[in-house]
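re: ur question from the group chat, yeah i did fold both. here u go
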Amino acid sequence: MNLMKAHLSRRSSAAFTLVELMVVLIIIGTLAALIIPRFVGATYDAKKTAAKTNITVLANSVNRFYYNMDRFPTAEEGLKALMEAPTGDEASKWRGPYLEQLRNDPWGHAYQYRVPGTHHATSFDLYSQGADGADGGEKENEDIGNW
């Protein structure tokens, strides 16, 4: 009989009680509530930094196009003019491609190119429309540009 009681007490001491499980779940929930918002903000910051970097690369490519062609790509040509040689008289001036690949912004939208720009009236505006893919906006939806 004593052997049976010893075996039962060993089994019951090896299990977790409901209170212990609840304490662990509360601790995990508290840690998640503190940590997850930091990662959400970090994701947006990383996308914003990537967009700024890509815009700088694109703007440098547009400026190299300008130095060789004595003009900015037209609104009709857009950023594709950085990868495709023009036809006609200007073909001899073209020293491209000025850009290997035209990528979308971190939110999957095309970068916007405007010439003449509204922020740079004598040159061009180059920007990402942010998470919402529309002009304007605040926080995650704000436009990120070369201004």
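okk and heres the other one u asked abt
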Amino acid sequence: MKYCNYSGGASGSDSIFETEGEKYSVKTVAYSFFGHNIKSKNKWVLTQQQLSDGWEHILITNKTLKRNISNISPYVKNLLSRNWFQVRESDSIYAIGTLKSDHEILGGTGWAISMGIDNNKHIYVFEQNMNSWYEYSYDENKFIKISYIPKLTENFAGIGTREINENGKNAIIELYRVNFNDNII
């Protein structure tokens, strides 16, 4: 099987998903845009039309999130818009972050998670402050704590907070280790 991680290429969780994935021959596509400075060697620059399409999905998911987006800068608008492509291309999303409630994740990661829910993706969040994995339950419309490390799908989004802590880093390392049975290539 060939695995591909769809990322935003940000520092923190995105970068760790990318560098750890390389050890197992996981390809990364790091979505970016003109003027976005990322260190990923797998940068994929989106066009202005693609970013506009992504923004349409932000507007849709904001009906659920109800966040104030009226005064955001064009740069932040592009950051949020590129999240759509991570969601669109993935079968499932694995995020490192902080639960705001039992159905919402804080920060920019929350946008991708909400779009993933809107599009019926499998969603897993490692809550780094609680050191636990959660899965989104569509039956209960909330995140449920799970006692296992989730199974990666071939096309996934490995995303999350820039402020990753040791628990979050270890969760990514373990996610790959368990899914690839320690078979570092």
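fwiw on the second one: The mean pLDDT is 95. The chain has one domain: 4-179. idk if thats what u expected
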